[in-house]
């Protein structure tokens, strides 16, 4: 099981996946917003989205869990 964590603090601008989605390495799964910049969250390995732990508009800190993969 893989875990995708925030690499910086910011607001969750968009969540691009939902539970059950198949994802591939290099795919953007969310977009964080910080200081009016939109920064994509890209995964390094593929899998199936098990659970999305955040919602659009949530604030996250660096290291917070965003998405769990099977």
From TrEMBL:
It holds the Pfam family Biotin_lipoyl. Residues 1-70 form the Lipoyl-binding domain. The keyword Coiled coil does not apply. GO terms for molecular function: acetyl-CoA carboxylase activity. InterPro entries: Biotin_Carboxyl_Carrier/Decarb (IPR050709), Biotin_lipoyl (IPR000089), Single_hybrid_motif (IPR011053). SUPFAM superfamilies: Single hybrid motif. Gene3D superfamilies: 2.40.50.100. Its EC number is 6.4.1.2. Keywords: Biotin, Ligase. It is an enzyme of class 6 (ligase). NCBIfam families: PRK05889.1, PRK08225.1. PANTHER family: OXALOACETATE DECARBOXYLASE ALPHA CHAIN. This is Acetyl-CoA carboxylase.
